[in-house]
Amino acid sequence: MKTLKNRGLIVLILLAVYPFNSQLLGIAPDDSLVVKWKDINVFYDDNERCLICHGEEYYTLSDTVAGVSQIRNMFQDYFVNREDYYDGVHKSFSCTDCHSSDFIRFPHDVATRLEPRYACIDCHGYDENYAHLNFEEIEVEYNNSTHASVENFSCWKCHDPHSYKLFASEVADVGELVLYDNNMCLACHANFTEFRLLTDREEINVVSKHEWLPNQVLHFESVRCIECHTQISDSILVAHMVLPKDQAVKNCTECHSANSRLMSTLYKFESKEKRGNGFFNSIILNRSYVIGASRNIYLGYLSLLIFLGVLSVIGIHIFFRVIKAKRK
Amino acid sequence: MSKGLYLYPKWIRLWHITNAVLFLILIVTGISLQFSGQDEPFVLVSFKTAVSWHNGAAFFLTLSYVVFVIGNSVTGNIRHYRNNSSTYIQDLLKQFNYYRRDMFRGEPHPFPVTEESKFNPLQRFSYVLAMYAGMPLLIISGILLFYPGMLPRNIFGVSGLLITDLVHIATGFLLSIFMVIHIYTCTLGSKPTTLFKSMVDGYHHDDH
């Protein structure tokens, strides 16, 4: 009898917690989007039981017994944007594929909230469907990275499974890739509120730490943090072994040279396809430019030829001048 | 004994030596940047040093160029760069043939130096090209590379930076070639050092 009473209370509370009138806020999903999402995900309606709160930036918390209700902000970490979710790699998933079905109870109890979370390797490891992404090697690199030594760090600190997209190998514009990837790092390293959740270290000022870098803004816009802060990996698409800060690349010619490091990192995907075919050198592609690396082999030979030609003409001229001087 | 014609006033000589030194710094650092790398044979200066020296020298070269343009206009020195001849092409060929053939036959200089005309037609042509076409192109492309935010990201599908860099490097290279030829032709005085001496004391010592 007591159990039934409890269940009734839970149902009452569940009914009382409904999203703030999202239509008034103008953020209700478009009907056509809902149709599209239902096509993408057969669990759409099931997921709405979670997203009715977690898919809204605001929700209304009501105590039906006392007749009190308040509009609350959904805590950012627990907010799932439907558009991003149904556009991400996990778009066909039900919430309960990864989360406990005990979350149906509200308020969610502490034990449920502290459930162990899956890591990428738990689903993608040792599966031939994902063999090309080599999650096993990613796991090894991650375990050897500085991030692995941080308590409570996990894949999700950088890759939000609710919005994650395969970006690096698919994006057409390198600038977009740089922005996307750097935002991952800056979400903690330039946001002390997030950073202090994981470490006791003092706040990092990314700008002043990189003051030594000439044209700092251009570097930040053009290359990813991981270009210098990870160890190059040939076996995975994106290096995951984040190095201690004293091992970060500070030697300009690692990138600014014919054998640029960027070939094995940022331009890995494009360069594999276009290497050797472009007029603008094998290393950096037409859309990019890196001093010291953007060399054109044909122009190089042409300039050498012109220079040697000029020297030869001067040499011949000197020769005849000497002959003439001797005849005098 | 007469010292000869006084053709190169102090400001020109000062500008000339400043320009030469800065240009040499820019060539050395520019090559070091272009061919940067650990095992590259042309790298004379480390990348980091090359960046700061190249930027610094470029700043002063731009200033020196402004001084040159203003000085040329204000003092009237620009008249030596103007071509008033109606037989321009023939004059160029005549001067070219002198260097190519006639000077070895002991023939006289076709365009002797005077107070009103201190450059021969080939000099005038190459100096105008270098100072009023090459230098502005080099400086403007250099400024754009220094402030890349001013450049369009893409020009016909190619990086705006890359195109500007190609213009900068090509112009720099051609001006370097000009400098090599310029230095060599300065050995063509009555003695190999005569014309260099002119740029030190300002007097034209040759009889042509």
Keywords:
heterodimer, A: 328 residues, mainly alpha, 3 domains, three-stranded antiparallel sheet, 16 helices, 43% helix, 4% strand, B: 208 residues, Fumarate Reductase Cytochrome B subunit, two-stranded antiparallel ribbon
Protein described:
The complex is a heterodimer of chains A (328) and B (208). Chain A is mainly alpha-helical and 328 residues long. Chain A has three domains: 1-115, no CATH class; 119-250, no CATH class; 296-328. Chain A has 16 helices and three strands. Chain A has helices at residues 2-16, 22-25, 31-40, 44-54, 82-85, 95-98, 110-113, 120-124, 135-143, 174-189, 192-195, 206-209, 216-222, 225-229, 268-274, 297-327; strands at residues 18-19, 58-63, 68-73. Chain A has a three-stranded antiparallel sheet. The longest helix of chain A has 31 residues, at 297-327. The model of chain A is unreliable at 1-5, 7-26 and 275-283 (pLDDT under 50). By secondary structure, chain B is mainly alpha-helical. Chain B has one domain: Up-down Bundle (Fumarate Reductase Cytochrome B subunit). Chain B contains six helices and four strands; from the N terminus they run βααααββααβ. Chain B has helices spanning 10-34, 47-75, 88-100, 121-146, 160-185, 194-201, and strands spanning 5-6, 154-155, 158-159, 203-204. In chain B, the strands form two sheets. In chain B, strands 1-4 form a two-stranded antiparallel sheet. In chain B, strands 2-3 form a two-stranded antiparallel sheet. In chain B, helix 2 (47-75) crosses helix 4 (121-146) and helix 4 (121-146) packs antiparallel against helix 5 (160-185). The mean pLDDT of chain B is 91. The A-B interface holds A 175, 214-215, 217-218, 252-253, 256-259, 280, 286-289, 291-292, 294-296, 299, 303, 306-307, 310-311, 314, 317, 320-321, 324 and B 33-38, 40, 47-48, 51-52, 99, 104, 148-149, 153-154, 157-159, 161-162, 165-166, 169-170, 173, 177, 180-181, 184.
